[in-house]
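Before the break, one more example. Copy the sequence into your notebook; we will annotate it together after we see the structure.
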Amino acid sequence: MSPSRKTPSPGLFREIPPAPQTAHDKTAAAAKLIIETEATRRADRTATLKAARLARDAAMPPAAEA
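Here is what the structure looks like once it is written out:
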């Protein structure tokens, strides 16, 4: 008897994305990956800075209005 699998089998007919074929496709795929990575990093940094700014503003006493 074989040991039980911890992860389910992906199935017999799973789809495998084709690899880029031409040099242009390879370059476009690399550029897309870089752009997506940078956008994710930028969004994370923006969220962190916004949270810090909101925490700072919440700790400050309200300004007296004239």
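The CA atoms of residues 25 and 31 lie 10 Å apart. The mean pLDDT is 84. Try to locate both features in your own notes.
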